[in-house]
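FW: tagging you since you asked about this chain on Friday. Here's the raw sequence from the shared folder, copied in full. Didn't touch anything.
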Amino acid sequence: MLKKYLPNVLEHSKDEAEVYVADNASTDESVELLKTQFPEVKLIILEKNWGFAEGYNKALAQVEAEYYVLLNSDIEVTPHWLIPLVAFMDAHEDVAACQPKLLSIFQRNQFEYAGACGGYMDKYGYPYCRGRVFDTIEEDRHQYDQPAEVHWATGAALFVRARIYKEVGGLDARFFAHQEEIEMCWRMRIRGYRLFALPESVVYHVGGGTLPKSNPMKTYLNFRNNLTMLYKCLPQSDLGAVMRVRWVLDYVAAVQTLLKGNVGDFKAIFRARRDFKKWKKDFAADREQIQAGRVATTMAEYAPFMLLWQYFARGRKTFAQLQ
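HL: got it, structure written out here
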């Protein structure tokens, strides 16, 4: 990934930004490659694999800048991609983070799964995007080319104001990986900050470069972390009802995976719910602090409907149909 995509990132970013690579205790020749072939890159070597979340926290603690861009190693950027992001953030002090348009590196006229053109969430914690709802990925026909306020911005290419990143405590290290950027964005929204998708900036993403989409560990992390995010961020008035519905929906999802012969994902969902129940108490103080700092009481990008019903029962499979 580094050998293939880092030259492109350097070519199209060097005039606007400094490029750092954080090495999460890799066991291949990544560090040697960086030292010999990319001496202009600033290298941050971490002593163990801290995961996506804490790996970024520890790396960014060593970087002084007004803005950070968290960028996956499987991203291809385009000429001047940073300029519209910087200009928008400079002009809007109340915006905490933004993202470019993410397209697939393999089908370059299609949105990419992990963020597409900006992220949203239904009332039960199911994320979706402009350009991607569950597994339905739209062709980019420039239907989402207007800037839009969103509920979350993708961690694959997350442009974030450093001051606010630190203010909210960064990514939750306990998540390790998956949904940690959605949870952090939600905390920013609760504090009254805004987030945007800015499709004038375009990048291409491989996706699944760390864990493929159908992987029991990925399923486990997604379910466990999503439940934890809901517990931390939902207002008290919604928490009980949402968690009761999710209890039912999660076990229905587990049974469905088993009927499809996917024993690994079936076990992963049960393990995720068990482990969430075990560690929920560890997040009680976080929840109290987040709710005490709540400024935003309503969020238009947090949809009032059940995405599962809209998608599977009513056949609404695109963002425009949901709206």
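FW: The longest helix spans residues 236-259.
HL: agreed, and The two ends are 37 Å apart (CA to CA).
FW: great, closing this out.
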